[in-house]
């Protein structure tokens, strides 16, 4: 027997419809790519998104066609998103931080028909489009005044397209299972793979993201997503903010400490989301200029493990609560968040810190399990390392065009490629990427743990741990350090600093100082590049026995 409730397909166009109708006057503030701060509203964004849809229809875009964006977080990018998705086309967010050849490969794989591009990336597209035969048209997201001279074939000016198109265009009317968004993983192993979100998965992810224990966004919030819309859907903020009518502040192309501070301060932002490197830049800016952020209440930090120094600086010096979150492109991306359970929140802050450092617990809609190499379930004792497996209503079931074959185990769980522990009260902690973990004498050493503890050394700006071959133990960890400008420290200073904070046999065999630690296209330390740079490195000495 079926239920007798109304059929109301969960399609994301309803989110912007709702925002325009019930929160139409709420602001969207953008640091435009052209420079000035510009102000719009949800009502205006909705009207203009409809015009984008009309234009796309006029160009023959149909249900399921891929339309790409190569753009920063701006109101125009939001309009393009909803304009594309509203008519059942697939919004394919391209990551401009990838190499041009990778972008071209991805465009061809996705068979994108149209690309919306920011001024910043017109040059890149000019370079690669001759190799992308499926692309029929490019829309440059600027006005006539700033429209560049370009060799791009059939280049449209966004503002002209919007002005000349009708704001009457029907949205929705298709199944909630219809494809909605496409985002490629960064392809650290093999070719990039496309994660194809559905309207339903994005809608459910939005509802989950809005929970008090997840992003906790409300109509009273002003939210600034630094995390880009081209990386895992800006963690869902471009859906969650209009869903509740939160004021949205979009940083455009500028994500340095000063630019972010200016927006946080002048727009009185209450909550924000970004990777740890962005927060580190902001904190350095605040500290060096003696600034405060009285309106900022909480920040969500994810994408890479959040160091203790950031959690403490926000709490102690700025009264800001840090929500540590874990997720990935394949999980839409919110997989776990570190909101505090009553057992933890009733403890003094210092005792909460070990839990705040963990990546947290899964919200409804996500199931987690921890397994050994053979797929056997491992205990939740907070100590046993295992493969983190995930299943749920907004987790990828397969990649676009079947890349990678079957990606699920017999119970339908996806292998995240992360190694983690889960403690008795359910807090998951990522200890490594499976391919980065150091295996010494058959035992696993968490590189993330050592990196984050070493980062607490006052002279350290960035730290990374990689494994290097060892004749007796197979592999041993070495610590790589980029020092803060003007600081000095020795190998022994770092080893002394780690003493007593990690197990003896985890102690790095060496400390190597470098001028630069490479970051990948999603802002994470690129250990593949780091290992390649250090391929001729040899260990200085023998190492301690595992405990
Ligand atoms: P991406 O799909 O590019 O967003 O990358 C997802 C990967 O980033 C995850 O599988 C983790 O390895 C890593 N990651 C994301 N959030 C965290 C976090 N809070 N702590 C540690 N690693 C994280």
Model description:
The chain is built from 16 helices and 24 strands. It has helices at residues 13-22, 42-58, 75-86, 100-110, 122-128, 158-164, 199-209, 237-244, 257-266, 276-289, 308-318, 342-345, 349-356, 447-454, 491-498, 527-533; strands at residues 27-31, 37-41, 66-70, 90-93, 114-117, 137-140, 155-157, 179-184, 194-198, 222-225, 247-250, 271-274, 298-301, 321-327, 334-337, 366-371, 386-392, 414-422, 428-433, 438-440, 443-445, 460-470, 474-483, 510-513. The protein has an eight-stranded mixed beta sheet with strand order 2-1-11-10-12-13-14-15, sandwiched between helices. Strand 10 (222-225), helix 8 and strand 11 (247-250) form a beta-alpha-beta unit. The radius of gyration is 24 Å and the shape is globular. The model has no long low-confidence stretch (mean pLDDT 95). Bound molecules: adenosine monophosphate.
CATH topology of the domain at 436-533: GMP Synthetase, Chain A, domain 3
CA radius of gyration is 24 Å
Q: So, CATH architecture of the domain at 436-533?
A: 2-Layer Sandwich
| Major pleated sheet | 8 strands, mixed
Structural class comes to alpha/beta
pLDDT under 50 segments (min length 5)? none
**Mean of pLDDT:** 95
Please report the distance between the alpha carbons of the first and last residues: 59 Å
Distinctive features:
24 strands, 8-stranded mixed beta sheet, 547 residues, binds adenosine monophosphate, alpha/beta, single chain, GMP Synthetase, Chain A, domain 3
């Amino acid at each position: 027997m079926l239920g007798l409730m109304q059929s109301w397909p969960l399609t994301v166009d309803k989110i912007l419809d709702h925002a325009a109708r019930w929160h139409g006057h709420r602001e969207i503030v953008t640091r435009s790519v052209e420079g000035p701060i510009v102000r719009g509203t949800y009502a205006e964004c909705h009207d203009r998104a409809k015009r984008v849809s009309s234009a796309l229809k006029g160009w023959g875009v149909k249900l399921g066609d891929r339309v790409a964006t190569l753009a920063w977080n701006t109101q125009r990018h939001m309009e393009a998103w909803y304009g594309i998705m509203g008519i059942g086309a697939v919004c394919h967010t391209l990551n401009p931080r990838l190499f041009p050849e990778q972008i071209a490969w991805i465009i061809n794989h996705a068979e994108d028909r149209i690309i919306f591009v920011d001024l910043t990336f017109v040059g890149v597209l000019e370079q690669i489009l001759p190799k992308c035969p499926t692309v029929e048209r490019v829309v440059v997201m600027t006005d006539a005044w700033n429209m560049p001279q370009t060799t791009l074939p059939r280049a449209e000016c966004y503002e002209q397209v919007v002005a000349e198109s009708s704001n009457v265009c029907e949205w929705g009317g298709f199944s909630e299972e219809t494809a909605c968004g496409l985002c490629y993983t960064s392809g650290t192993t093999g070719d990039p793979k496309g994660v194809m979100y559905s309207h339903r998965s994005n809608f459910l992810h939005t509802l989950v993201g809005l929970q008090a224990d997840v992003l906790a966004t409300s109509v009273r919030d002003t939210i600034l997503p630094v995390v880009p819309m081209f990386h895992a859907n800006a963690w869902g903020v471009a859906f969650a903010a209009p869903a509740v009518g939160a004021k949205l502040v979009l940083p455009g192309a500028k994500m340095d400490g000063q630019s972010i501070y200016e927006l946080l301060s002048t727009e009185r932002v209450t909550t924000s989301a970004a990777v740890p490197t962005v927060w580190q830049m902001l904190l350095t800016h605040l500290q060096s200029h003696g600034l405060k952020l009285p309106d900022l209440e909480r920040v969500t930090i994810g994408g890479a493990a959040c160091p203790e120094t950031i959690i403490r600086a926000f709490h102690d010096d700025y009264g800001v609560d840090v929500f540590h979150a874990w997720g990935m492109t394949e999980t839409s991306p919110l997989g776990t968040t570190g909101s505090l359970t009553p057992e933890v929140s009733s403890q003094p802050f210092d005792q909460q810190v070990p839990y705040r450092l963990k990546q947290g617990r899964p919200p409804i809609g996500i199931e987690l399990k921890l397994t050994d190499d053979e797929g056997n379930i491992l205990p939740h004792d907070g100590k046993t390392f295992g493969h983190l497996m995930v299943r749920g209503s907004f987790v990828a079931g397969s990649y676009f065009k079947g890349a990678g074959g079957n990606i699920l185990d017999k119970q339908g769980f996806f292998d995240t490629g992360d190694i983690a522990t889960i403690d008795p009260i359910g807090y998951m902690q990522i200890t490594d990427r499976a391919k980065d973990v150091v295996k010494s004498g058959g035992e696993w050493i968490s590189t993330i743990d050592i990196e984050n503890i070493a980062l607490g050394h006052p002279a350290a700006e960035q730290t990374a741990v990689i494994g290097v071959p060892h004749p007796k133990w197979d592999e041993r960890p070495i610590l790589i350090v980029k020092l803060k400008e003007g600081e000095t420290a020795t190998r022994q200073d770092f080893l002394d600093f780690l003493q007593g904070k990690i197990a003896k046999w985890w102690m790095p065999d060496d400390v190597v100082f470098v001028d630069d630690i490479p970051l990948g296209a999603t802002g994470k330390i690129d250990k593949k590049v780091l290992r390649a740079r250090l391929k001729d490195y040899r260990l200085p000495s023998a190492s301690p026995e595992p405990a």
